[in-house]
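Quick sanity check, Malectin-like domain-containing protein:
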Amino acid sequence: TLFPLVFLSIDCGEPTGTRTDKLGIKWVGDGDYISTGKTAEVQVSNSYYQEDTTLRYFPYQKKSCYVIPGVARGRKHMVRASFFYGNYDGKSSPPSFRLQFDGNRWADVNTSSSESKYWEVIYAPKRDNISICVAQTSLNQTPFISALEVKEFERGMYETEDTDDVLRRWQRVAFGAKGFV
Protein backbone atom coordinates (compact mmCIF):
# COMPACT_ATOMS: atom_id res chain seq x y z
CA THR A 1 0.00 0.00 0.00
CA LEU A 2 1.29 3.45 -0.88
CA PHE A 3 0.87 6.20 1.69
CA PRO A 4 1.18 9.91 0.97
CA LEU A 5 4.15 11.27 2.90
CA VAL A 6 3.14 13.13 6.05
CA PHE A 7 4.60 16.62 6.19
CA LEU A 8 2.89 18.52 8.98
CA SER A 9 3.96 21.75 10.70
CA ILE A 10 1.74 22.91 13.57
CA ASP A 11 1.85 26.43 15.01
CA CYS A 12 0.82 25.72 18.61
CA GLY A 13 -1.32 28.41 20.22
CA GLU A 14 -2.73 29.45 16.85
CA PRO A 15 -5.99 27.43 16.90
CA THR A 16 -7.07 28.02 13.29
CA GLY A 17 -5.73 29.22 10.01
CA THR A 18 -2.75 28.46 7.83
CA ARG A 19 0.26 30.40 6.60
CA THR A 20 3.33 29.73 4.51
CA ASP A 21 6.70 30.86 5.86
CA LYS A 22 9.69 32.29 3.98
CA LEU A 23 11.03 28.78 3.34
CA GLY A 24 7.76 27.66 1.73
CA ILE A 25 6.66 25.55 4.71
CA LYS A 26 2.90 25.51 5.28
CA TRP A 27 2.00 25.96 8.96
CA VAL A 28 -1.44 25.06 10.34
CA GLY A 29 -3.16 25.94 13.60
CA ASP A 30 -3.30 23.34 16.36
CA GLY A 31 -7.07 23.23 16.93
CA ASP A 32 -7.54 19.96 15.03
CA TYR A 33 -4.90 18.13 17.10
CA ILE A 34 -5.66 19.07 20.71
CA SER A 35 -8.69 20.23 22.71
CA THR A 36 -7.11 21.16 26.06
CA GLY A 37 -4.92 23.98 27.27
CA LYS A 38 -4.95 27.72 26.71
CA THR A 39 -3.33 29.86 24.05
CA ALA A 40 -1.03 32.83 24.61
CA GLU A 41 1.28 35.22 22.81
CA VAL A 42 4.83 35.74 23.99
CA GLN A 43 5.70 39.13 25.50
CA VAL A 44 9.33 39.09 24.41
CA SER A 45 10.00 37.96 20.86
CA ASN A 46 13.63 37.84 19.83
CA SER A 47 13.13 34.70 17.76
CA TYR A 48 13.68 34.43 14.03
CA TYR A 49 10.65 32.13 13.68
CA GLN A 50 7.04 33.37 13.54
CA GLU A 51 5.78 30.12 15.11
CA ASP A 52 7.59 31.13 18.31
CA THR A 53 5.25 34.12 18.83
CA THR A 54 2.35 31.96 20.08
CA LEU A 55 2.15 28.90 22.32
CA ARG A 56 -0.29 26.58 24.04
CA TYR A 57 0.10 26.07 27.78
CA PHE A 58 -1.54 23.56 30.10
CA PRO A 59 -2.24 24.98 33.58
CA TYR A 60 -4.85 22.40 34.64
CA GLN A 61 -3.63 19.06 33.29
CA LYS A 62 -0.72 16.98 34.58
CA LYS A 63 -0.23 15.61 31.04
CA SER A 64 -1.53 16.91 27.71
CA CYS A 65 -1.13 15.29 24.30
CA TYR A 66 -1.32 16.21 20.65
CA VAL A 67 -2.50 13.32 18.48
CA ILE A 68 -1.41 13.23 14.84
CA PRO A 69 -3.57 10.78 12.82
CA GLY A 70 -2.91 9.16 9.46
CA VAL A 71 0.76 8.25 9.76
CA ALA A 72 2.24 5.18 8.08
CA ARG A 73 2.87 2.50 10.68
CA GLY A 74 6.42 1.15 10.54
CA ARG A 75 7.82 4.02 8.41
CA LYS A 76 10.45 6.36 9.87
CA HIS A 77 9.16 9.76 10.96
CA MET A 78 10.94 12.77 12.41
CA VAL A 79 9.08 14.52 15.21
CA ARG A 80 10.33 17.94 16.35
CA ALA A 81 8.87 19.81 19.31
CA SER A 82 9.84 23.47 19.86
CA PHE A 83 9.53 25.66 22.93
CA PHE A 84 9.95 29.43 23.26
CA TYR A 85 8.92 30.84 26.65
CA GLY A 86 9.09 34.55 25.75
CA ASN A 87 7.74 35.46 29.22
CA TYR A 88 4.19 34.73 28.00
CA ASP A 89 2.90 34.59 31.60
CA GLY A 90 4.71 37.71 32.87
CA LYS A 91 6.51 35.72 35.58
CA SER A 92 10.04 35.82 34.08
CA SER A 93 10.44 32.21 35.20
CA PRO A 94 10.86 29.67 32.36
CA PRO A 95 9.37 26.32 33.39
CA SER A 96 10.72 22.78 33.19
CA PHE A 97 8.62 19.73 32.31
CA ARG A 98 8.76 16.36 30.55
CA LEU A 99 8.29 15.61 26.85
CA GLN A 100 6.95 12.22 25.68
CA PHE A 101 6.18 10.55 22.34
CA ASP A 102 3.79 7.60 22.07
CA GLY A 103 3.95 7.12 25.84
CA ASN A 104 7.77 6.97 25.91
CA ARG A 105 9.92 9.40 27.85
CA TRP A 106 11.68 11.65 25.35
CA ALA A 107 13.35 14.47 27.26
CA ASP A 108 13.27 16.71 30.29
CA VAL A 109 12.66 20.17 28.86
CA ASN A 110 14.36 23.14 30.51
CA THR A 111 13.07 26.23 28.73
CA SER A 112 14.85 29.55 28.40
CA SER A 113 13.85 33.20 28.64
CA SER A 114 15.99 34.18 25.68
CA GLU A 115 16.12 31.33 23.17
CA SER A 116 13.99 28.77 21.42
CA LYS A 117 14.70 25.15 22.37
CA TYR A 118 13.77 22.09 20.35
CA TRP A 119 13.99 18.31 20.54
CA GLU A 120 13.87 15.83 17.67
CA VAL A 121 13.37 12.10 17.46
CA ILE A 122 13.27 9.76 14.45
CA TYR A 123 11.36 6.50 14.86
CA ALA A 124 8.80 4.20 13.26
CA PRO A 125 5.34 4.45 14.88
CA LYS A 126 3.66 1.19 15.82
CA ARG A 127 0.17 2.65 15.33
CA ASP A 128 -1.45 4.82 12.65
CA ASN A 129 -1.12 7.91 14.84
CA ILE A 130 1.58 9.68 16.82
CA SER A 131 1.06 11.26 20.22
CA ILE A 132 3.33 13.99 21.57
CA CYS A 133 2.78 14.93 25.20
CA VAL A 134 4.04 17.48 27.69
CA ALA A 135 3.82 16.49 31.36
CA GLN A 136 4.17 18.49 34.54
CA THR A 137 7.05 17.27 36.73
CA SER A 138 6.68 19.71 39.65
CA LEU A 139 4.17 22.16 41.04
CA ASN A 140 4.16 25.71 39.66
CA GLN A 141 5.89 24.52 36.46
CA THR A 142 3.33 24.82 33.67
CA PRO A 143 4.13 22.84 30.48
CA PHE A 144 3.75 24.58 27.12
CA ILE A 145 4.65 24.05 23.46
CA SER A 146 5.31 26.50 20.62
CA ALA A 147 5.51 24.31 17.52
CA LEU A 148 5.28 20.71 16.47
CA GLU A 149 6.52 19.16 13.23
CA VAL A 150 6.05 15.65 11.87
CA LYS A 151 7.86 14.58 8.71
CA GLU A 152 7.61 11.10 7.18
CA PHE A 153 10.75 9.87 5.43
CA GLU A 154 11.01 7.99 2.15
CA ARG A 155 11.79 4.29 2.53
CA GLY A 156 15.52 3.74 3.03
CA MET A 157 16.14 7.03 4.84
CA TYR A 158 17.44 6.61 8.39
CA GLU A 159 17.01 2.84 8.16
CA THR A 160 18.30 0.89 11.15
CA GLU A 161 18.67 -2.80 11.93
CA ASP A 162 15.44 -2.86 13.92
CA THR A 163 12.21 -0.92 13.38
CA ASP A 164 12.09 -0.37 17.16
CA ASP A 165 15.28 1.74 17.03
CA VAL A 166 14.91 5.40 17.98
CA LEU A 167 17.30 8.11 16.84
CA ARG A 168 17.52 11.28 18.92
CA ARG A 169 19.15 14.50 17.77
CA TRP A 170 22.32 15.24 19.65
CA GLN A 171 23.80 17.94 17.47
CA ARG A 172 23.29 19.37 13.99
CA VAL A 173 25.98 21.26 12.12
CA ALA A 174 25.52 23.11 8.83
CA PHE A 175 28.92 22.91 7.22
CA GLY A 176 29.42 25.71 4.71
CA ALA A 177 26.21 27.54 5.56
CA LYS A 178 26.58 31.31 5.69
CA GLY A 179 24.21 33.87 7.13
CA PHE A 180 21.46 31.47 8.22
CA VAL A 181 20.26 31.41 11.80
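Posting the structure with no commentary besides this: The first strand starts at residue 7 and ends at 11.
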